[in-house]
Amino acid sequence: MNKIIEIKNLNKSYSVATNFWGREQKFVHALNGINLEICENEILGLVGESGCGKSTLGKCVLKLEPITEGEILFKGKDISVLDKNETKEFRKKTSLIFQNPYMSLNPRMKIYDILREPFIVNSIRDKKIIRERINEVLNLIKLDQSDLAKYPHEFSGGQRQRIAIARAIMMNPDFIVADEPVSALDVSIQSQIINMIIDLKQKMNLTMLFVSHDLNIVKYVSDRVAVMYLGEIVEIGNKDELFENPKHPYTKALLSVVPKINDKGEKKIILQDDLPSPYELPKGCKFHTRCPFALERCKTEEPKYYSDTETHKTKCFLCE
What we know:
Number of strands: 12
Largest sheet: 8 strands, mixed
Strand content: 15-25%
CATH superfamily: P-loop containing nucleotide triphosphate hydrolases
Radius of gyration: 21 Å
Helix content: 25-40%
Structural class: alpha/beta
Order of helices and strands: EEEHEEHEHHHEHEHEEHHEE
CATH architecture: 3-Layer(aba) Sandwich
Number of domains: 1
C-alpha cells in the first residue's frame, strides 16, 4: 500500500524555563524517537493516557508544531523543507478535526461562511464551484440546505461536530488528524459521528490518524492501533492482533480496565503512581517505574522492538 505519512525518529521538546541570562534550562520531552507509517485509506488509532504526547504528534504531522529532530514525510517528501507554495498545497491536502465542537466554530459566522472559508484560504472564488461542493458535503454529513443560514449556537453538539467534519473534508484532503473528535459529545451521539467517519473514509478514500483515549471507540473505528506511553510508541499492530493478543504490560493494563459486557472476572491490572515527569525521563524502559512485571535490566537498558508477526511490534524485553 502507498505510504501517505512516514515518521522517522521523531523527537519534540519544549523549552519551559530559562535562567537569569535567558538561556534555556529545562525541557519537556514530549515525543521521543517516534517511528510510524500511515498507509493510504487506513485509519490508525493512537491511544494512551492524557499527557503522553498524542495531540502533540498530531500537530507535528500537520506542521502545526516544529519538530526538534527527525523527519516527517508526506507522500515521500519531508514537510520541514517545503517552501511557501508547497506548504500551501500541503495545507490543502491535510486537515484537522478538533476535539471540542463548541470551541472550533466561529460563533459570529453563519454555517455557509464557515464551510466556504477553506475555499477563500485557498484562493478559490468561483461561487458555483463553492456552492456545488458545499451541497455535496452537506449530503455526506446529512444536514439540510436550510442549515447554511444558521449560526453554530443553533445546533446541538453532534450537529456542530458534523459541521466541523464537513469543513475538514471540504477540500477533499488526502490525510486528516482527528484529535479526540467525539470525547466532548454524549455517548448516544458518539456512535453517529463514528459511523459517519467510517462512511466518509470509504466514500472519500480517506487516510486518518485517529487520536483517542477510549479503547472501545478506537477498536471500532481503526484498522491499526498504536499505543503511546510517555512520548513513545510501545506497541503497534492490526486492531485484532492488539486487542486479542496484547503483548506490552501497558497495553494489557489499559485493556484490563475497559468495561466489558461479558466480564469473566479477569484480573484488572491497576497501574501505580502517575506518569513520570516529562522533564526527566526514566532511564532504560520508560514504563519500568509503573510496570508490575519489570525486570532488573528494564531499569538500565532501553528495549528494542520485538515482532511476533509482520504487523505486530512491541517495545518490551518480555517479548524477547
